[in-house]
Inverse folding.
């Protein structure tokens, strides 16, 4: 049983307004999503409130990330140099295809037919698991949520809590079916133990691991991974070989920048003061941990995002998911409707940019621009601003297409612009509108049903009919300041 | 007295006029001579759909001794275009606004999202598409542009506007009011001084109602789902009227209330503040 039939490939995904339809009518999914993010949001709000310097921390984090991006080339080279000096090997991948090939080649050198993975959304971005599978390498997820998804044949719907849309009884069903545990109950302890038993075998048997990175530290050549379950720590200590896949934007200039980032990240992501496990490693250490260490630095359109001044801030993201937890759209839809491994507000700006604005063009419109995402963002990404910039790009693409004249929204807004240029034209349009809408206005003065694009409004909402007199008409009759001389 | 002017202001003036301190008396005299002028930018959708809000603003401000002016050439601030991605079109409307209002003493706008448009988006539009002169004119104008509750509290310095509205009311804090204009306590302070009014507390007060301009049509189903959730909180307050500083949110909430026979109405805050015993708000008639 699949709990949601999602394909997270923006090239094939349905437009957002269509993709949401089955979700909006799925009571279990909506309850799971709303419940999960309400829990995280409540914890987050409490822990943010206890920091007097929260806004200063945000300002600092924003400045650190902006500085790192402005000097990205230098910091990446510094990272490469320090990491290499410490015994690691750095690989550069221009796109998803190159990253997949590099990883596969490394696995083949290790003669690995199996690999264990720490949760990494970047690997989902490049669709690594299916690629490895097709090339004879089985990838086993070790993050609990990722195990649930992998065993259940599900896709992630959130970047921090990827199985957020699945509830406890559904987890029980997946585990019972895939692990052959008929008598498994939905007691969280029992479910965790089942996962633990399953995982222990993988940790002990598979000597090759793949991770993502929360941060790359240029100053020391270190990699940082934060997690909650300790599965990451296991993957970082037991295997012989570790391959880390990281987007090029993940770099921080200095080790001490972690002080700011870690305070913000856990509070923003899971509503904790500190995440349970923070792992940092630098190259290889003789007799301790993996003896072969590779970092694959993935560009995959990031440098083209970096080149655009208004959109650059997208890359400041530290993947805390506070924006999706705060988003009233995401709260109704969950993540799959975004058709991308990056859902929610950050996904709505990141995904189309990763696709060179050729796909996922409905995503910049998947927002009411309420601003909640910007308010909570720990690195102050002005997501509404970037959404508007991307919307402008979508419209500019539309301007060159003949089909634009069949889009009522496009035509309507172009005509409205002509009307707004001259008050008299606007006023004539108001009068015509009064006549036109009058045909649909019932005796109670309200419109219950409209044709065409108006039906999108009236499918759930009435609209009060236009009043007989607009404000400016009233004003013209009245004149300014009764009792004084009118104009 | 209530009909002639604001009681607090008049009282204050009388007190200071009687003061023995000559400087205070001179100041008070100058204040009483200088009439504040406010140019009302009604906004395109209020002009077309909610003229009663404009009438209420005029009544309210004149009662407070403000001379209200209305520029006949005004149309739209460009928000709808800017938020949908029609940046060039939005720019031409933004330019129009600045040209029309650059001489205004103050501009009052009974729509927080339109004011947010000007503060958050005009600078970027002018930076990208405008010239130096336009940027300068706008920079000079912007500090004189007020959302209604800002004008009352920050400019006029009044909280008690002499209003009477004997109903249970819930205030919907619109997204632009909360997160763009940071109106904070202003609307609550105004409501607290309305005689007869019982203010209900709204759960999840800063959560979006799902309107979002063209979002409500482009993503009508998600918008409706958000509206359903918002409406639950609003209706649970048991209020008779839901008020806000944005008729766009109220059009959304009110449209659903009417569809569902929810037994609750929407009313712009200006109409509550204009309401008195002798002239109750039109929505209550």
């Amino acid at each position: 049983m699949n709990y949601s039939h999602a394909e997270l490939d923006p090239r094939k995904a349905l437009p957002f307004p269509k993709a949401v339809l089955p979700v909006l009518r799925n009571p279990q999914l909506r309850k799971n999503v709303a419940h999960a993010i309400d829990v995280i949001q409540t914890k987050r709000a409490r822990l943010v409130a206890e920091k007097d310097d929260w806004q200063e921390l945000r300002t600092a984090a924003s400045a650190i990330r902006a500085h790192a991006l402005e000097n990205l080339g230098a910091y990446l080279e510094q990272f490469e140099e320090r990491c290499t000096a410490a015994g690691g090997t750095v690989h550069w991948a221009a796109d998803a295809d190159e990253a997949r090939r590099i990883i596969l080649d490394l696995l083949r050198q290790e003669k690995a037919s199996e690999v264990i993975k720490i949760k990494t959304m970047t690997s989902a971005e490049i669709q690594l698991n299916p690629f490895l599978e097709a090339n004879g390498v089985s990838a086993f997820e070790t993050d609990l949520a990722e195990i649930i998804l992998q065993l259940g044949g599900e896709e992630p719907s959130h970047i921090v809590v990827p199985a957020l849309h699945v509830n406890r009884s559904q987890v029980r069903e997946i585990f019972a079916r895939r692990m052959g545990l008929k008598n498994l109950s939905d007691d969280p302890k029992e479910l965790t133990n089942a996962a633990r038993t399953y995982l222990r075998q993988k940790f002990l048997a598979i000597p090759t691991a793949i991770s993502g990175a929360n941060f790359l530290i240029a100053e020391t050549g270190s990699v940082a991974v934060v997690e909650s379950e300790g599965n990451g720590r296991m993957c970082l200590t037991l295997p012989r070989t570790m391959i880390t896949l990281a987007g090029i934007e993940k770099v921080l200039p200095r080790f001490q920048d972690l002080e700011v980032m870690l305070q913000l990240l856990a509070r923003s992501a899971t509503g904790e003061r500190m995440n349970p496990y923070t792992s940092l490693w630098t190259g290889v250490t003789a007799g301790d941990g993996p003896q072969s260490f590779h970092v694959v630095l993935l560009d995959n359109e990031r440098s083209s995002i970096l080149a655009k001044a208004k959109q650059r801030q997208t890359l400041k993201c530290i993947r805390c998911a506070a924006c999706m937890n705060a988003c009233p759209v995401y709260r109704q839809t969950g993540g799959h409707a975004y058709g991308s491994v990056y859902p929610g507000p950050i996904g709505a700006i990141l995904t189309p940019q990763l696709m060179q604005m050729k796909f996922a063009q409905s995503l910049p419109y998947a927002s009411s621009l309420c601003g909640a995402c910007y308010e909570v963002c720990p690195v102050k990404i002005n997501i509404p601003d970037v959404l508007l910039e991307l919307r402008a790009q979508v419209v500019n693409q539309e301007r060159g297409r003949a089909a634009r004249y069949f889009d009522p929204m496009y035509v309507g807004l172009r005509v409205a612009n002509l009307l707004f240029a001259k008050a008299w034209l606007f006023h004539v349009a108001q009068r015509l509108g009064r006549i036109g809408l009058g045909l649909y206005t019932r005796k109670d003065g309200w419109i219950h049903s409209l044709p065409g694009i108006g039906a999108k409004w009236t499918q759930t909402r009435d609209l009060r009919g236009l009043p007989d007199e607009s404000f400016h008409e009233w004003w013209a009759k009245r004149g300014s300041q009764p009792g004084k001389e009118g104009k | 007295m209530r009909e002639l002017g604001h009681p607090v202001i008049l009282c204050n003036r009388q007190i200071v006029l009687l003061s023995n301190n000559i400087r205070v008396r001179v100041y008070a005299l100058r204040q009483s001579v200088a009439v504040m002028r406010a140019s009302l930018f009604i906004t395109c959708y209020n002009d077309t759909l909610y003229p009663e809000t404009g009438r209420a603003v005029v009544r309210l401000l004149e009662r407070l001794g403000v001379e209200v002016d209305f520029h006949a050439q005004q149309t739209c601030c460009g928000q709808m275009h800017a938020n949908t991605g029609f940046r060039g079109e939005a720019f031409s409307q933004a330019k129009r606004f600045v040209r029309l209002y650059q001489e205004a003493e103050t501009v009052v706008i009974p729509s927080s999202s339109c004011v947010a448009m000007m503060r958050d988006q005009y600078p970027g539009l002018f930076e990208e598409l405008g010239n130096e002169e336009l940027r300068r004119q706008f920079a000079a104008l912007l500090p004189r542009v007020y959302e209604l509750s800002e004008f009352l509290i920050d400019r006029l310095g009044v909280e008690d506007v002499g209003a009477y509205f004997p109903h249970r009311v819930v205030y919907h804090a619109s997204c632009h009011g909360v997160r763009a204009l940071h109106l904070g306590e202003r609307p609550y302070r105004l409501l607290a001084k309305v005689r007869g009014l019982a203010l209900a507390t709204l759960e999840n007060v800063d959560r979006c109602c799902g309107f979002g301009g063209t979002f409500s049509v482009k993503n009508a189903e998600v918008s409706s789902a958000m509206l359903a959730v918002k409406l639950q909180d609003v209706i649970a307050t048991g209020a008779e009227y839901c008020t806000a500083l944005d008729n766009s949110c109220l059009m959304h909430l009110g449209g659903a209330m009417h569809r569902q026979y929810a037994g609750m109405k929407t009313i712009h805050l200006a109409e509550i503040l204009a309401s008195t015993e002798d002239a109750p708000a039109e929505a209550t008639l």
Observations:
- The mean pLDDT of chain A is 95.
- Residues 407-480 of chain A form one domain.
- The first strand of chain A starts at residue 89 and ends at 93.
- DSSP finds 22 helices and twelve strands in chain A.
